[in-house]
Structure to design on (208 residues):
């Protein structure tokens, strides 16, 4: 699932950078903003985070002229701000955690945060504690494992499938796109970004 999420991030970037026309490229970004908004309403936070990660990556975020066209739309600007606010990493993803706490199944949480929480609990807490009465004896640190079990219980809580109509052609297309050889080299992606929108471009091209 982690590999697929990573591929999704880079695939989104490729769909944007594969469009040489600036106005069409802006439309592609608008499309992904809209998908992110749908994901928010479906409580599909894993895909929402992937979209945010792609749009916020250096190769996409630097497309200033493209973004200028995108943000002319108040609707898309509002949707983008809302999804960014939910996916904000500030205060240990406080906004996202609040949304997740209030979410009802079906819901697809962002797996990356669970992995971070598990790693933090595992490495930040010893597996055993020394007895205060008998220093030479060690006891299992139950507090650590109780906290870990709560994280795992929350993951299990959301193991409820969505009741969405399956469109097989769309599913096959998406699986194909996510399993094909996707460019994941950040430097090459940035180079492609410079090719479609160089640092010095006549702003008049977006007014035409």
């Amino acid at each position: 699932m982690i590999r697929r999420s990573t591929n999704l991030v880079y695939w989104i970037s490729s769909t944007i950078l594969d469009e040489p026309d600036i106005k069409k490229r802006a439309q592609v970004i608008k499309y992904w903003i809209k998908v992110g908004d749908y994901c928010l309403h479906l409580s599909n936070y894993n895909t929402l985070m992937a979209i945010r990660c792609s749009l916020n990556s250096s190769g996409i975020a630097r497309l200033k002229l493209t973004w200028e066209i995108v943000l002319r739309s108040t609707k898309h600007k509002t949707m983008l701000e809302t999804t960014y606010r939910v996916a904000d990493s500030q205060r240990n993803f406080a906004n996202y955690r609040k949304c997740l706490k209030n979410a009802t199944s079906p819901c697809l949480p962002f797996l990356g945060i669970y992995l971070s929480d598990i790693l933090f609990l595992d490495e930040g807490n010893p597996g055993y504690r020394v007895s205060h009465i008998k220093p030479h004896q060690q006891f299992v640190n139950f507090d650590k494992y109780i906290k870990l079990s709560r994280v795992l219980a929350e993951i299990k809580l959301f193991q409820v499938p969505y009741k969405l109509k399956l469109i097989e052609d769309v599913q096959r297309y998406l699986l194909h796109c996510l399993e094909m050889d996707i460019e994941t080299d950040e430097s090459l992606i940035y180079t492609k970004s410079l090719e479609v929108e160089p640092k010095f471009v006549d702003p008049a091209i977006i007014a035409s």
